[in-house]
Amino acid sequence: MTVFEKITIAKAINESLRASMEADPKVLVMGEDVGKLGGVFRVTDGLQKDFGEERVIDTPLAESGIVGTAIGMALRGYRPVVEIQFDGFVFPAYDQIVTQLAKMHARALGKVKVPVVIRIPYAGGIGAVEHHSESPEALFAHVAGLKIVSPSNSSDAYWMLQQAIAGDDPVIYFEPKRRYHDKSRLDTESIPDPLHKARVARTGSDLTLAAYGPMVKVCQDVANVAAEEGKSIEIVDLRSLSPIDFDTVQSSVQKTGRLVVVHEAPVFFGAGAEIAARITERCFYHLEAPVLRVGGFHSPYPPSRLEDEYLPGLDRVLDAVDRALAY
Amino acid sequence: MTVEGTAQRKNARGSSKRTTAKKATSAKKASPAENRNSGRPEQAEQDQLVQLLTPEGKRVEHPDYSIDLSADELRGLYRDMVLTRKFDAEATTLQRQGELGLWASLLGQEAAQIGSGRALRDDDYVFPTYREHGVAWCRGVDPTNLLGMFRGVNHGGWDPNTNNFHLYTIVIGSQTLHATGYAMGVQKDGADSAVIAYFGDGASSQGDVAESFTFSAVYNAPVVFFCQNNQWAISEPTEKQTRVPLYQRARGYGFPGVRVDGNDVLACLAVTKVALERARTGQGPMLVEAFTYRMGAHTTSDDPTKYREDEERAAWEAKDPILRLRTYLEAEGLVDEAYLASIDEESEALGKRVRDAVRAMPDPDTMAIFENVYADGHALVDEERAQFAAYQASFADADAVAEGN
Q1: Residues ≥6 apart with Cβ < 8 Å to A99
Q2: Cβ–Cβ under 8 Å, residues B209 and B196
C-alpha cells in the first residue's frame, strides 16, 4: 500500500497513468510532447522512459489526427489515453469526438467499443495566453455517447482516471490545470467512489454549493468565510458532468433548501443551467430561493490581466450566497 | 498503348473543343493565371494511368504492375461487377419507390471497387465511405445489410469484425484516420495484415485525409489509401478540390502514389495488390488514385444534369468497366452464351432477394433509441428510458380503460 500524505494532482495523474499501463498492456498514452518532455505540464513525465515509444507516443501536431487515430487503435483493441495540450486546442478534434467517437458504439448496435480517454488540461487562472484557459465542458456534456468528468483533488484524479481508462466508453477527463500543483492525500489502495458519484465535500445546513474541478477549492474558501459569518454551507463536488449524480445534489438541497452552482464556464447554456432546471423540478417544494448560478460571462475568455474578474472568485460566490439566503 | 492513350485523352474530359483549347495553352507554356482557368488535370498526367485492359477490351502490359489470372478468376471479377451493378440498380429503384430514403449509387465504379476489394486478404481491414457496395460484396457482407442505413432502420447493420469491414462513414474523410490508427495497432500487434481506407476526390480536401497521410507516413503504418476519383463531389468537379493530380499528393508526405485506370478491374486489382504487399512488408503507406467516373448522381437527392454535360457522361460510358471485361472474355473464348445467361439469372435472383429483404425489414423497436448509447450504461439514459417507457405505457392503460368502458 502506498499512502501519499501530500501529492500534487499532476503527480497523482502520472501515478494513475503508470498504474493503468502496468495493469493493462493495451493502454497507450498519445499526444503532443507527451514523450521525452513529459507533456507541457510534465503530467506524463518519465512514462516514455519506462514504457517505451511504442506505448507513450509523441504525435504530429494535429488534434483531429490524434483523436481519429486513437479511435482506430481502440477499434483494434487498444485503450488510448490521449492528451490534448490545452483546452482551446480540442476544437480541431471536435468533429472526430462528436461525429465519430461519441456515436460509434451506437452506430454499430453495440458491436464495437471505442474506449478512448481524452485528457484535457482546462480552465483558467494561470495567466496564460488566448486559447489556453477555456472551459468547454458543456459542449461535450451535450453530446450523447461521451462521459465527462473532472476531479478536484489528488485522490479523485488518481482513481477517476483509472476508472475512465478501464471503462468501455469514451471519457473526456478535464484536468483543472490551475490545481495541478495543489497537494492532497492519496491512498493508492483505498476503495474509490464510483466514477460518476458526486461527493459531499463539506456538510452544512443553510445552503448547498455545487461545483466541480477548479471551483471546488473556491467553494471551500467561500464556506470558510461564510462560517465566520455564522452561515453553514454544504459543498457538493459533482466530479462527473455526464452523467450528473442528481440524487446527491437533490439530497443536499432537500436538506439546505438553497442551491448555488459555481463553474468557470460561461453561465449561458452551461452546466449550471442544467443543474438548476433539474433540481428545480426535483426539489420545487424544498427550495427557499431560486437556484442561482455563478460563472463566466458571455464573452471570449479575456486577456489574463482580466481573468480574475471573469472567473468566479470568493467575492462573487459570496454575493450569490447572500442573495440566495436573502429570500 | 499510344493509340488507346490518345483515345483516352480525347474522351477523358468533356468536349474535344475544351481538350484542344487546353493543348494550345500548354503548348505556349501557360501562365499561372491561365493554368488556374484550365482546371482539369494535365494531359500528361492522364498518360500516367496504369492500365492493363483498354476500353476496347484489349490486354496490355505495364512494366510495374502485371497480373496473371485464371479463367475462373477473370470470370469471377465479371460476375462480381455484374451482381454489384444489379444490386446498385435495385437499390436505386427501391429509393424511387419510396422504400429507401436515400441511395448513393456506385454505377461506373464497379472496377475500382471489385478490383481493389478482390486484392484484399481476409485478415485485412477495410474502412469504407458510404459508396463501397462493391467492396462490401467482396468482403462477404450481405448486401441487404447495407440498406438498413438508407431505409432508416439503423446507422449500419453489420458487425464490422465479422467481415473486417467497418461501418459506412458519412462524414467525409473521417475514416481515413480510423484506418491509420487501426493500422498502427496492427503494426503494434506484429501482424502482417494491411488496412485499406476508401475515400473520394472530394474527401481529399479534408484535413482528416491530410492528417491521416501525415500520421501514416510518420509511423510507417500499413495502410493503403484508395481514392476513387470519380470526378465529382456532388456538384463540384475535381478541379475545385486540387491543383495537382491527386496521386501526386502522396509524394509530399513521403510515400508513393499511383494513378490507375479506375474502370479497368485488372489494373485496380494489380495495383492494390502491390500497395497491400508493400504495407504488409513494412514499407508503409501508399496512395492509389483510381481514375474513374460516377455515372449517376452523387445520391438520389441530386440532379447531375444541373451541373455537368451529357457529353461527359457519354465519353465515360465508352469506358464502361463491365463491358470492357466482357469484350475481353468473349474475345478470349472464356465465356459463352450459357455462362452469361447464368450470370443474368443470378443477377435477377439477387435483385428479387434485395427487394424482398428491404420490404420485409422491420422498423426498429422504439426503445432502441436508448440502446447502445453507452457501453457501460449512463444514469441519464436510464432515467429517460424509464420515463419514455412509462409515457408509452400510459397510452396502453388509457386504451384498456377505453375498452373497458
Answers
A1: B171, B174
A2: no
Helix (H) or strand (E) holding A250: helix A246-256
Residue A110: what pLDDT?
Answer: 96
Contact B182 A72 (CB under 8 A): yes
Q: What is the ipTM of this complex?
A: 0.96
Q: Is the peptide bond before A243 cis (omega within 30 degrees of 0)?
A: yes
Dump the DSSP string for B275-294.
Answer: HHHHHHTT---EEEEEE---
Question: Does residue A216 contact residue A39 with C-beta atoms inside 8 Å?
Answer: no
Going from the C-alpha of B163 to that of each of A72, B138, B140, B157, the distances in angstroms are: 16, 10, 7, 12
CB of A243 within 8 A of CB of A269? no
* Res B112 pLDDT > 90: yes
pLDDT at position B27 is 37
Q: List, for chain A, all residue ranges whose pLDDT scores fall below the cut of 70.
A: none
Distance CA B141, CA B159 (A): 9
Helix (H) or strand (E) holding B179: helix B174-189
Whether chain B has a CB inside 8 Å of the CB on A62: the answer is yes
Cβ within 8 Å, pair A75-B155: no
Contacts of A147 in chain B (CB under 8 A): 374, 378
Cell (9 digits) for B97: 419507390
Quote the CA–CA distance of B178 and B199 in Å, as a whole number. 12
CA B338 to chain centre: 31
The CB density around residue A184, as the number of other CB atoms within 10 Å, is: 18
Residue A139 C-alpha cell reads as 459542449
R_g of chain B computed on alpha carbons:
23
Cα–Cα distance measured from residue A231 to residue B228, given in angstroms and rounded to the nearest whole number:
69
Partners of residue A73 in chain B, C-beta under 8 Å: 181-182, 184-185, 188
Read off the amino acid at residue B120: L
Which residue type sits at B343? I
CB within 8 Å: B174 and A68: yes
